[in-house]
Design goal:
Blueprint (H helix, E strand, L loop, with lengths): L2 H27 L15 E10 L4 H4 L7 E11 L5 E4 L11 E4 L4 H36 L1
Antiparallel strand pairs: 1-2, 3-4
Helix pairs in contact: 1-3
Amino acid sequence: MSLFQLLSVSASGLAAQRARAEVIVENLANSETTRTPGGGPYRRRDVVFEPSSQSSPFSAVFQTELDSGSTGVAVAGVVEDTRPPDLRYQPGHPHADANGYVAYPRINPAEEMVDLMGAARGYQANVAAMTAVKDMLSKSIELLR
């Protein structure tokens, strides 16, 4: 595996963790949304990752196809939570049903913050890996001078 392929793998990880963080922030922002354009409360969303083959954009230039490619990560999709909403008794709320209950999304802010911290750590790990590869490339070029 070439160093340029390693950069591609880390870049795919950066993109995947960014998408994950965006969805988590959307969940936090809508944790009290009781009505959406589609009707009903907001539904919590999760990002699903899948392995994805990565090829280096520089491989054609260097003509170094050492193996069949490297495996990175890609966003397979975003899935909605199918659990029933959390019902709270608030008879004066404009979105209350006939019994006085309002449907709220099943979002735990503490859990979402832990997930956001995990996404941030994953992003930082990929940045660190890219920095290490960049340093290796710089040292290689320096040795060839």
